[in-house]
């Protein structure tokens, strides 16, 4: 059944696949993960702040994002970001936003909703006494968060955050709907050009599987280490 | 019960009395709606012969040998971690063992050809944590295995369950769910659930150790009554009062091995082994 | 924002000639719901079997269950969609492949199978966790009563496990519903695809996406409400 397969098509296109495609995918994943965790932590802090209105805003944001399919959100931002940019800088017409910036904004804002739920659980897992002890020592809210609560919450939740980052890595393949050349986009373009759908899609599956499988094994090892330290 | 001071030598109870007790002598009828089915062989009901068990490199049972004859009540006691719970779970093959032999009513339980579900359906078991099925009503808890294993009709199974529920004094709770009953009540239901299968022998794995002290009595009363009616029983328990009252044989275990066995008077009254003595003085206080 | 809003667009005829833009979105909604429900049936059945495999004493059964979960969890859904839609017909014997390609509504069937198997890996994870959360004695009690392994699962372990995992299963169902939108890449005319088409035909991008967004939020609320009702309905007294 593999007799008329042409795996040479992969060898011929590996620079395009990896230097263009995979670089885009990994950069987008890394930046969106960092941005998503930072924004998500802020949202989680809003949600747990006990201040008026802020928790409700955070909750609505999170539930709103989690109700929508990522594909729809990608379309939304693709069309919306130029208008927002225009509004911010007061330009004459909608500004031009590159594929990468548009994707990065989308994934950061979308994944922040998911990361915020993880960070919320992490902050809540820290005993109340820790915050009380920090306050008793005279630390301000931000000091106590920054040097007592968040470092512990972050360490406890690191395996879960990384698992969510693996999900994010897989999710970035959906930029395909904007014809962007991420790893899958590159594979797909070669597949269409050379009429080699079977080889290219199988190869893409193998690459994604290998990366995600190894990453999740590493996360599991980390999880065991974190469990022991605690 | 366990805290009562014990004379150094107590009179040997009459084991015969338990075996020959006529049905119908209990306060509210009998627990056994019919006599236990006649076993297939005349040998011991349970024969445990040189059983050893390991978890990996760790040996939990060492060359255990004992037996339970028809109508006999055997109480197994010993400190926690002595392997007594593991041993009783080996009897109906809930735990595998690597060496030795256990036969129940003449059937080798480790034999690949043995139909374990069928054998287990004839061996009643009561667990430390009751293990009633939380999603089923009391009635359904009692009838599930009767219907699925013994193939009884729903009506037949429910009637049988209800009769047993009445005997353990819980008929009014038939429609409730396990979570709505107290621990003592749940354990009495669990005993009724096991009896509903018409077992030839009953195994009790620390049936009172998860109960609040004030509920221990109601469960022990049911067990005493069952013993008086002639049920063959193997009981893992710390309730030495129960052992003294109804046991024919007391087996003392420590560190995975059987240290000594004999009548309650012998083992509880004047143990030969130092380990047994120190356990008894710790339990009795 | 200099954008020309036109909320009346929904009542204008779509260029497809089969009704208004509103009709177009509603037909997308129907496909979304139909695909999600059918895929869920597959996911629930396959996921339960795989989840149970992972809790059996047999090492081989556990390995098969684990392999299934790893395989379907570590490949992006979109790539799986392409494998089922573009690759499978090519690697099958030619006559089967041709039959597959000529199947009417092929995107629908592909989406159901693909999403079903994908979501099954997540359902399996929940089922396994639910069974392992039960006290060990429950399995023993079933066994001690003479129930076979299959009977113990059917009457004791699974009814309890499903009750425990109802909340995470609800969110898996919602993920499954949202994931139907990935099938627009293989031509399924579901809600997001129809909103996108409306945007392309009418240039009223924000009206189209707003409508789709509101519909998704309503479905979410409905599902959460229904799940709450189910949860109360199957709740066991005394727990």
From TrEMBL, chain A:
The cellular location(s) given in this protein's UniProt record come to: Cell inner membrane; Cell membrane
SUPFAM superfamilies referenced in this protein's UniProt entry, alphabetically: MetI-like
The topology of this chain with respect to the membrane is: Multi-pass membrane protein
The protein in question is named Glutamate/aspartate import permease protein GltK
PANTHER family (alphabetical): GLUTAMATE_ASPARTATE IMPORT PERMEASE PROTEIN GLTK, MEMBRANE COMPONENT OF AMINO ACID ABC TRANSPORTER
What does this gene product do? Part of the ABC transporter complex GltIJKL involved in glutamate and aspartate uptake. Probably responsible for the translocation of the substrate across the membrane.
- State the similarity comment: Belongs to the binding-protein-dependent transport system permease family. HisMQ subfamily.
Q: Where is the ABC transmembrane type-1 domain?
A: 22-219
Query: Which biological processes are named by the entry's GO terms?
Result: amino acid transport
Q: Return one GO MF term.
A: transmembrane transporter activity
Question: Keyword annotations for this protein?
Answer: Amino-acid transport, Cell membrane, Membrane, Transmembrane, Transmembrane helix, Transport
Q: One of this protein's Pfam families, by short name?
A: BPD_transp_1
Q: How does it assemble?
A: The complex is composed of two ATP-binding proteins (GltL), two transmembrane proteins (GltJ and GltK) and a solute-binding protein (GltI).
Q: Give the record's GO CC terms.
A: ATP-binding cassette (ABC) transporter complex
Primary localization: membrane
The protein's organism comes out as Methylobacterium platani
Q: Transmembrane helix as a keyword? A: yes
Where are its TM segments located? Answer: 24-46, 67-89, 95-115, 160-180, 200-219
InterPro entries of this UniProt entry? AA_ABC_transptr_permease_3TM, ArtM/GltK/GlnP/TcyL/YhdX-like, MetI-like, MetI-like_sf
UniProtKB/TrEMBL annotation, chain C:
Alphabetized InterPro entries for the sequence: AA_ABC_transptr_permease_3TM, ArtM/GltK/GlnP/TcyL/YhdX-like, MetI-like, MetI-like_sf
Name its species: Methylobacterium platani
Which coarse location class applies to the principal site listed for this UniProt protein?
membrane
Q: What is this protein called?
A: Glutamate ABC transporter permease
State the Gene Ontology terms under molecular function.
transmembrane transporter activity
Question: What compartments host this protein?
Answer: Cell inner membrane; Cell membrane
Family under the similarity heading: Belongs to the binding-protein-dependent transport system permease family. HisMQ subfamily.
Keywords (A to Z) from UniProt: Cell membrane, Membrane, Transmembrane, Transmembrane helix, Transport
- Membrane topology field: Multi-pass membrane protein
Query: One Gene Ontology cellular component annotation?
Result: ATP-binding cassette (ABC) transporter complex
Give start and end of each ABC transmembrane type-1 domain: 29-227
Transmembrane ranges? 29-53, 65-86, 205-230
> Would you kindly state one Gene Ontology biological process term found in this protein's UniProt entry?
amino acid transport
On the tree of life, the source organism's domain of life is Bacteria
